[in-house]
Structures are given as C-alpha cells and as structure tokens.
Amino acid sequence: MIVILKKNAEPQQVRLFTDWLRSMGLETHLSVGENHTIVGLVGDTSRVDMESILALDIVEMVQRIQEPYKNANRKFHEEDTIITLPNGAKIGGGHFLVMAGPCSVENEEQIISVARSAKAAGANALRGGAFKPRTSPYAFQGLHEEGIRLLLRAREETGLPVVTEIMDAKHLPLFADIDVIQVGARNMQNFELLKELGKLRKPVLIKRGMANTLQELLMSAEYVMAGGNEQVILCERGIRTFETATRNTMDLSVIPVLHQLSHLPVVVDPSHATGRWELVAPMALGATACGADGLLIEVHNDPEHALCDGPQSLRPEKFAALMEKIRAIQPYADRSFSAAPAAAE
Amino acid sequence: MIVILKKNAEPQQVRLFTDWLRSMGLETHLSVGENHTIVGLVGDTSRVDMESILALDIVEMVQRIQEPYKNANRKFHEEDTIITLPNGAKIGGGHFLVMAGPCSVENEEQIISVARSAKAAGANALRGGAFKPRTSPYAFQGLHEEGIRLLLRAREETGLPVVTEIMDAKHLPLFADIDVIQVGARNMQNFELLKELGKLRKPVLIKRGMANTLQELLMSAEYVMAGGNEQVILCERGIRTFETATRNTMDLSVIPVLHQLSHLPVVVDPSHATGRWELVAPMALGATACGADGLLIEVHNDPEHALCDGPQSLRPEKFAALMEKIRAIQPYADRSFSAAPAAAE
Amino acid sequence: MIVILKKNAEPQQVRLFTDWLRSMGLETHLSVGENHTIVGLVGDTSRVDMESILALDIVEMVQRIQEPYKNANRKFHEEDTIITLPNGAKIGGGHFLVMAGPCSVENEEQIISVARSAKAAGANALRGGAFKPRTSPYAFQGLHEEGIRLLLRAREETGLPVVTEIMDAKHLPLFADIDVIQVGARNMQNFELLKELGKLRKPVLIKRGMANTLQELLMSAEYVMAGGNEQVILCERGIRTFETATRNTMDLSVIPVLHQLSHLPVVVDPSHATGRWELVAPMALGATACGADGLLIEVHNDPEHALCDGPQSLRPEKFAALMEKIRAIQPYADRSFSAAPAAAE
Amino acid sequence: MIVILKKNAEPQQVRLFTDWLRSMGLETHLSVGENHTIVGLVGDTSRVDMESILALDIVEMVQRIQEPYKNANRKFHEEDTIITLPNGAKIGGGHFLVMAGPCSVENEEQIISVARSAKAAGANALRGGAFKPRTSPYAFQGLHEEGIRLLLRAREETGLPVVTEIMDAKHLPLFADIDVIQVGARNMQNFELLKELGKLRKPVLIKRGMANTLQELLMSAEYVMAGGNEQVILCERGIRTFETATRNTMDLSVIPVLHQLSHLPVVVDPSHATGRWELVAPMALGATACGADGLLIEVHNDPEHALCDGPQSLRPEKFAALMEKIRAIQPYADRSFSAAPAAAE
Questions:
Q1: What are φ and ψ of residue A227, in 5° steps?
Q2: In chain D, what residues touch A60 (CB-CB under 8 Å)?
C-alpha cells in the first residue's frame, strides 16, 4: 500500500503516522519529494482500512498495491482449483460443468423429466430453485422443504448432483444433502450467511451481485474461504446498467479477468443475465469461448406454464442442440490464464 | 395491466389465454386492431407475474399500469405517514428528524460524548453501528451485543431514541429495546429478514440498495408492511454509477419521486452516499431543500481514530453549524407532493 | 403506439386529443375500461414525439409498439445486409471481416509492417487512426492528413481496404479514398456528422456510445440510412459501468440482440472495450462464438513505443495465433437470428 | 505521477525507463522496496500518457497525483471565476444566474411572451433552442437560423442576454451575436468543436455528458481554456444510470465537488435531468442549497403544444413561485469551497 502525504504535512505528524503504522506490524519506506512525501507500506495490509488512513488530515491519497484477498488470490495459489462432485464430475482446470434445470422446482413429474432430458443432452449437474428470492411479497416463493425433497428424488433417479439456492442461514439444516449450495446475487454480501457457509466443507457457488465489482465478489469468496471452505465457484449473471434490451448486462470479460486474479472456477448464467430464452444459446457459446469453466442453464419442459422466469428457459431439444455446439467450441476456448491445458471431456 | 398480442395470434390461443387470466380472478377487455390485439386486465394484478405472461408465444409485450405495491402506495393512502418516536420526536408530514452519531459504537465515553453534542446541536435521534457490514472478512465488524448495550446507555444519558442496523434476523432478540431498526443497503432485498421485521410493531428504516430502483425499494417496504408493520422509513444513500469522484452517486430526485409514489417518510444519508465529510454539509442542505423528511448524519468526536468510515464524519462543531442552516432552509423546502403543510419545528 | 389516459379524462378532451392524432395521419382505436381509457394508434408513428403526448394532462402513460427506426429494422428487411469492400472482402450474412492495425498511424515503416503482418495472419482490412479523439488537449491527436496518406500507401502495398475514424464533417474531403469511414463512440450522436455521411455511398462503421442504448445506436444508423446510404456497420466497443477492472464493460449480448432487431452487420472491438491486450484474445473468441460478423483488433509491431493505447495492442505473433482459433470457432458461431447459413470462408 | 514497477524489473530496464521519462523533461525519484520499486515523477505530467507507461512490461501500476487539467484547476487559480454578461448580470463568486426559456424557439409571439414572463419573475438570461439534437432523424430539429433571429428579437424586447446551443462548428457565424454559447451533453467531447470555441472570447456553457466523469468535464473545459477563452460555465444535467423513474439521474454532489476542484461557475439544468416538470422545482431548490451558481430552467407558455420536451417545462406562474423560494434559500446555500462570501443579489 502506498500513502501520498500532503505537501504541508508536519514532520512530527508524519512520525506519529508512521509509528501508528508500525504498531500494526507494517514496515514503512519514506520517499520525500518536492511536492509530496510518499510512504510505502510493506507487510500484510489486508487488515489495514484505507478509509481510516484517508481520514487523516495529512493524507492526500491512498493506493493499494496488493489485493485485499489472499485465499482466493492466484498469486498465492497458482494452480487452478478443481472441484469434484459426488458423481465424479469436475469443474476447473479445464474441466467443464454444465448445471441445467428449471428455475423453480414445481412437482415430482416436472423435476424428474427435466433432469432426465438434461442428463441425456450431456448436463452433469441439476439446478433447480426451492427457495426463490422474489421482489414482490405476493409472488410465488418456491416449494421450500418440499422442493429440496424433490431435487433429491431427481438425483436418485438420474445420479446428477444437485445445485440449489439458499436464502438464509437458518435453512442450512435442509441443505445437508445438497451437493452445491448457491448464494444468489442479492445475497452476495450477506456476510452472516457467507460466514456460516465457510464452516461447511462442500462447494458453494457465489453469484456476483448486480452492482458488485469483481474485487467485491472475490472478497465474498474470501469470507467463505477464511472459514476454511475452499470449494468456491464464482458465477457471473449480469450487472445492472442503463441498457434495457436485456434484463441485465452480461459481462463476459469477467471470465478472463477472474481467471487472472484467482484460481477459482468461473461459471456463467446466461439465462438470468439475459432474461430471454433466445439469447441463452448465443451467450452460452460466447461464455464457453471466453474460457468459462461451466454454465448454469435453465431448461424447462413447458415454459408456458412455468411459475416463474419462463421467458429465460430453453426447451430440452434446444438445450441438446446447444450442448453439441458447446462441445465443438470448448477445445478452442481461451485458456490464457490457466496453468493446465484443457482437459479432454 | 395491458398485454399486446402478436399479429398472428390464433383466436383459439387468445381464448385459452383470456380464460387463464379470468381463472386468476381478472376481468379482460379485448381491443382488436389491424396489427395487434390488445388485452386490458382489470382487477388485482399485483399477484400476476409479467414474466410468465411474456413467456407465452402469442404475447409481444406486457405493460403494467398499476404499481405492484399497495400498502406503500400513495394512491391508496393519501395522507403522509407520520411516525412518532418514544421521545416524542416525529418524522413525516412536515416533521423533520435528524439522526446523528458515529459510524461505529466504539466505547462508552465515545458514544455518550457524541450523543450529548449531537443533542446539543439539535439532533433528535442517535445513530450508531453495532453490527457493521464490511466487504473484508478481516476488517472490524462492530462491537455487536456490547455495542447495543452502549447505545442504550447513551439513550439513558440523553433521552435520544436509538437507530442501529441489523444484519441477520437471528440477532432480533438483541434489538428488543432499539427504537428504529435499520436495514442496510446490502440487505434491502434480504427478503427473509424483511418478513421478520414485518412481524414487529416498531419503525424500520430501509436503505436503498446500490443498484435498486425506487420500485424495488417500495417493494421491500411492501414486504414489511404486508406483515402488518406500517412504520417504514425510506432512505436514499447513493447508487453505484461510473463516477468515482464520490463513493456513490447521491440521487436527490428520489425525494420528490418517492413522495409522489408513496406516503412513507423519506430520509437521506449524505455521509455514506458521498464518503467524504466535506460534502456532507452541502448535500444535507440540498436534501433538506428537496423536501427530505429527515437526515442520517455521521458525527464523530475524533475522526482520525475512527475504526471505520472516518472520512465521512463531521466534527460536532461543524455539525452544529450545519444544523443552523438546515433550520433556516427547512421552511422553504419543497412540499409539492405532500398533503399537509410544513409543520412548525 | 398505445396511449393510456387518466381515469378522469373529460370526453371532450379525449375527442380533442384523438382529432389532433388523426390530423397527423394516424388512425385511433379507443378501448374504454373502468379505470383507464386506452387509445391505440395505427399508422406511421415514427414521427410522433412520445414526450409531447406525455405532456398532456389527460395522459398517464405512452407505450411504443413499433420501433422508431425503419431502414435499419429487420422487420422491413429480413435478409442480412452484406457489404462488399474493394478487395472483394465481404461482411454480413455469414461473411466474417477482421479489421486489424495500430491504434494510431505513426510512420510509413510502422503502418506498412503492421499491415503486412496483419494480412499474413488473415486480416482482410487495415484499421488505423489518423484523427484521434483524446480527452486531453495536451495529448497526441494523430497525424491527420499525413496519417491518411500513409494508410493509403499501406493499402497500395498490401491491397487491404482501409478503415479509419472521422471526427468532423469538415474533414470529409480527406476521406475521399478511404474504404470504410468510422464514427467513434463520442460522435455516435453527432447528428450533423451522421447526416453528411448519409450523403455518401460508402460503408460507415458506427461505434456505440459509452452510454447509449441499442435503440439509440440503431437511430444513429437510421440518420445515415435516411440519407440514402445503406452501407452501415454497427460496432460494440463497451459501455461505461461501475466496474473498473476493464476500461469499459463489453456487452456481447448486443450481438444477438442487434441481429434480432436489425439486418445490419455487427462487429466488436475488444481492444478498446477492455483496454488490456491480454483480454483481447478471449473476448475476440467470445464475440465470434456469439455470432459477430467481424472484429476490430489492434495490432502493433512494438506496443512499448506506441504513442497511444499501447496496452490494448496485440503483437503480430499473438494476433496470428488468435486468428487460427477464430477460424476454428467461426463455423459453430451462433446464427439464430440470421436468414442465411454461415458462408464458407 | 507515481509508477509502481514489478518485482522482477531488471535494473537496466528501469534505467532505460527513467532515462525516457527524463527525456520528457521529468525528474524521477526512485524508492526501492522489497516487493516493488516506486518511481515518483516530478514536473509537468499533463502531457504524459498513463496508458503508454502501463504498456511497459516492467510496470505494475500508474497513479496520477496531479490533476491533468491546469487552466480549470482551483489549485492554480484560487479565486472563483466571475463571468459578466452584457446586461450586467454576473455568475460565479456568489452571483446567481437564472437562465429561463422554452426548450425550442417556435415563433416570435412565443419566445417574446416567455422572455417577458421569465424576466418579470426574476430570470436574468433567456435560454431557447434553435438547433435541437434529436435522437430521431424524423423529429423536429429546430428553426435554425430563424430561431437565432427570434432569440435576438426577444433580447431586443427584454434586454435579457441569450443562451443557445451550437451543434457544429460550421454554424459559428450564426452565433456571432449570441451571449452564451451552449455545448450540449452529446457534444461534450466533440473536441473539434471545443477547439473552435476556444478561439472565441465569449462565455461557453458546457453540459456534462451522460456518461462522463467530472474529470472529463473539466478536461473539456480545458480544451476551451487552452485556446485562450477563460469564460467557461460547467453544467450538470444528469447522468445515465439504471434508474428509470427520472429521465436521467441528477447528481447534485457534483456542485461541491466541482467547486473544490475548479474555480469555474457551476450551473444545473433540472428540466432536462429529470424530464418531468413537477420535479423541476424541488431539484432547483436542492441545487440552490448545494451551492450552484445558477440554473437553466425550461419555462413555456403552453406545454401542451410544445414541439418538444413539453413534459419538463414549467408554466410562468409556477416558475415565478419557484423564483421566490430560490431567493429565500440562496443566502443559506453552501459556500464551503468558495473564497468569496455569497454576494447580495
């Protein structure tokens, strides 16, 4: 971290300041220029609050050099993290994971039929919502406990591991048998929830919030990893911008940027990002080519009667056609920031 | 709600569609044009999911006419909501409430001294953080239970009602004696928390999320009000945009817009919105002139040593000077959308 | 266009309103409901100003059904527009055009060597800046007339058609021999310039502004096409959002969305969008898979000494490796919204 | 400017780098740390292109310390700039200027009647559009030359100086008698136009672009001032964000921030920013309290028949009532960053 002091900083104030920094276990290197004095901090600055430093009258500017995250940082962990699911499916390090399924679990017939067609098309995990965050208190909020039960039934039938969203730590007991716990965009900074998930030893998929930076996403991963749970999957699902042609603006450049900053697997959810089924295929192909480690795709056996998010769900036959193109593109996908070569699927 | 059907919609599909709508208790009015058929829906459309309708092949466009919120809607509740705190201080309907205090409660001496100077300057409520949402798992997260205890001590000393933030419903028992419970921007769509707060019968202050629309803010208020708790205060604290000169972009136009849409009181937090103490006074004056019903202002007895957010805290003397200007401007503040005239303070 | 009138609209006001609309050559269809009266307008509404209608006291809401652009609209022109350059290279309808070259033309040796290596790697057009829009009046602004001359020299040497940016209509005479005239993001709504370009009969490449919607981009294309020049290429180069990890946020979903709305070719500029050379390859591959009709890529023989934008330029060898992957992915690229199949390259 | 070099930077590369910097007339100060080498640059860095430096393999980060603008910078010009118009009206340094009038000049009767009522209510300048930037090529684009003539007629009648927008440098001859030339948001970075305006010696009002930072706005002012024209007025008219409740998001915090960074007068245009007449009064009061040096307000004698932007125009009687409140608030407005005290109006 570098601190630039104002021209008029009193030598005595500067000494008080550097003493305070040393008291936090940091080394300081001063470089006195004509117009500014620059203080370089060496050591673990992840605990240093830049804002407290900015509050000092003698400080003009503070600039971090080291990222504030450690466990998620590729600098301290060069190899791609590879996560293995109960059915042997892997994600990361060239392994590609496709999580497909309906937005909401509605009934046994629905979830099992979707799971079967998703598996037949090549998906290696089942996604489906039991707890649905809805903007309106009057909208359908999911089947809750019953939804979890039906997901586990579908797993029995198909062997596909199950991915589903948690909305509150108090529901954790219901998630005991779930294979991958998803944290939704609205909860990306629900820090109390993240801490609880850090105590588990199972994969956690964290979706980027609609207005969160990549550094904030990595800091949320850090919350989970700081608790000892290193199985974190990062997910881009679009950010909120002025553009209204799509529900959110899907930022595929986060894939290579996150791969450069972190060793964690990165997946993309084109269904929620775009909110329109006819955009799911093109964006899924784009994400694959950009080097995503996997995809979350909504597949539905009957969009017309979906209780929610119908417009962004693919019919099974369209999903199957998409899977073929994904397999064709995957070998040529970008791997610039990854140690390992693309694994043979 | 208006649904525009595609040119090629089969009469039979249209009949199936209107039957389905009637099955939800809605009346439908058809108007068949050359290029489009328009279906007008009459009745309670707040339960209708626009997206499910958009999913239908015959539908080209859906447009809401009625707002999806009811309890928070001025159309159904013309009079301004006025909330009275234990010390008799009121907010709404021309009553102006100033909530001042430190970002974080640090120790008894600090919180009591700040509370005393805030009260002396004319603040009628004390704000202070016991639970702090922090981006980094390594940063100071507040004194928690002890912080709550110290806030209540400061209330004993000064008689000022206390406003503080909750981060998880499981902490509710600790908030039993708190006068106003604050929901932070990151939790604005923590729907499980909002539902719990709806069961209470005490004021809830909801901060707008960094990327949430005013309609979403009102829907979050609706979550609380749908539970029977009608004492909701709306708070603008800045949204996230491309501009980096301030921490967030403070959107003061939300004050008149929210007053037009809703009867709930609207307050502004210039300290967190700008992140810079020297901008707090100008923005507080601007918010007052725009017709805000109150302000959340950070006051600190010693910003240099604040454990967090020092840069945005005012010293007591600056706060006192600001209060004088606020009192001078308040009588001329905008009241365009309010039934009642400005109350004499 | 649909106009929703307020509940209390006087029949006489409504008649005055519909008379006024008919005076503009529009048919009106009334549908009177309990809470609202809906007026449907049939005819050419592209000249109707929604805001003037919104200004009327009796109007609650106005909703367009037809897009305000006609020449650029796929509804009125199903086939993909295919543009052919002097060297026979085509773009659109499955033809893929790669425009490569340096950010700025610096000298004859530089532009010719880059042109040669770009062509050798498979680029079919040369891009290079002679007029550079720079935020600072003190920064290098390009070689101007001399830069144009050097681009034409490079064309002589390589046969590659030349793409370069115009900043002011008064420079048009200098562009007489240029093959594709580029309108930069900052000039996307320089309407006087667009009108002048509409008088030409040569390809115009319009970059989307940093804060412009896709509809606004199509309206700018409409300015050129309304003048009779139908050779317009649309270009995504990133929009401005809160995220600072990349210079701009590259929105690849615009590729399928624009293909759905318009028949015009869509290209992407990953170099300017990301501002970082190491992100150019992954984003170029992503854009290709999403179905882009072409790419603008910065290639430089010596980034270290570039006078501007060095950080986003690829060295020739990296560009050549990228071209191979692009050729491998292109056959599997999305073509959902296109009539023609992908052309054999 | 501070440059942070990578850990592995070769001493020889570092020497080459510092030699290059010195060749640009900059002094360099090295500070070698364990993990990084920091190079501090002293001298005029406004010509240094940060991006070229970032392009160097040995560079990890570049951080500006000095602002890239000089003429507009308060650090080099402490006193507020005060601009005096032909009728003696002043703006800046505590002088408040209200520019009122219709969006578009339509005919002699209209412009003169609006000018008279604006003057009667206390406006000290007349605004009106002769050249209108319109998103659609099919929309009314203003009366052009005739509009300018009518504005000058209204000046004859009322003595009010005239403010109107220019869209292209080629129209400058028509603006010879105009008192204040306005550069619209879409042209804020039309650098060719800004250079031409720098050759004049009359006030130029520059509106902030919808996606431009304050630094970019100041750099555009720098373009004009670098030409020798120091009479620049900065104008906030809202930025584009995800919020759709208002046409744009009006960022009033730019008023104090710009006053801190620059000595130039800052005005606000609440009419275009909000796009809704009923929000003009509250936002005009807010801007006044925040310390704006003036306002641009749309006043119309008959919004219903305005050819454009009717929804954001105030009727004369509402404008007169607003002016009274503005006069009441102005003495208490924020003046934190200004040398001079508020002038008696």
A1: -85, -5
A2: 65
The single residue listed with the structure tokens 């997206």 is B51
**Per residue in A237-271, pLDDT tens?**
999 999 988 999 999 999 999 999 999 999 999 99
pLDDT tens for residues B52-95?
Answer: 787 677 888 888 877 889 999 998 899 999 999 998 999 999 99
Of D4, D65, D244, the CB nearest to A36: D65
Q: Where are the alpha helices (DSSP H) in chain A?
A: 11-23, 50-54, 108-121, 145-158, 191-198, 214-226, 254-261, 270-274, 277-289, 316-329
Q: How many CB atoms lie within 10 A of CB C218?
A: 24
> Which residues in chain A touch residue D2, judged by CB atoms under 8 angstroms apart?
2, 4, 38, 63
Res C197: pLDDT: 98
Q: Are D304 and C56 an interchain contact pair (Cβ–Cβ within 8 Å)?
A: yes
Q: What is the mean pLDDT of the segment spanning D56-80?
A: 87
Burial pattern B107-140, b for ≥16 Cβ within 10 A else e, equals: eeebbbbbbbbbbebbbbbbbbbbbbbbbbbbbe
* pLDDT for A110 beyond 70: yes
Place of tokens 């209108």: D132
**Close Cβ partners of B19 (under 8 Å, ≥ 6 residues apart):** none
Segment A310-317 mean pLDDT = 82
Top-confidence residue, D23 or B180? B180
Collapsed DSSP state (helix, strand, coil) of residue C113: helix
B314-328, pLDDT tens digit by residue? 889 999 999 999 999
Return the pLDDT at C34. Answer: 66
Tokens of residue B319, six digits: 């706060």
Residues of C in contact with B29 (CB under 8 A): 31, 33
- For C7, the token pair is 């509940």
Query: Chain D contact for C244, CB < 8 A?
Result: no
Residues 202-221 of D with CB under 8 A from C: 209-211, 216, 219
Q: Is the pTM of this model over 0.90?
A: yes
For residue range B183-241, list pLDDT tens digits in order: 999 999 999 999 999 999 999 999 999 999 999 999 999 999 999 999 999 999 999 99
Domains within chain A, CATH numbers bracketed: 2-63 (3.30.70.1140), 83-332 (3.20.20.70)
Cβ–Cβ below 8 Å for D40 and A61? no
Q: B252, D252: Cβ pair inside 8 Å?
A: yes
> Is the Cβ pair A136, B309 closer than 8 Å?
no
User: Left, alpha or beta for D89 (phi > 0: left; psi -120 to 50: alpha)?
Assistant: beta
Interface subset of B 80-119, CB within 8 angstroms of A: none
Question: Among A250, A276, A332, which would you mutate to test the C interface (most chain C Cβ atoms within 10 Å of its Cβ)?
Answer: A332
> What token pair was written down for C131?
């007029």
Q: Are strands C27-32 and C2-5 parallel, antiparallel or unpaired?
A: unpaired
Residue of C104, C136, C171 to mutate for D, most D C-beta atoms under 10 A: C136
Token pair for D32: 């070698």
pLDDT one-digit tens code per residue, D200-238 = 999 999 999 999 999 999 999 999 999 999 999 999 999
- State whether C211 and D216 contact (CB < 8 Å): no
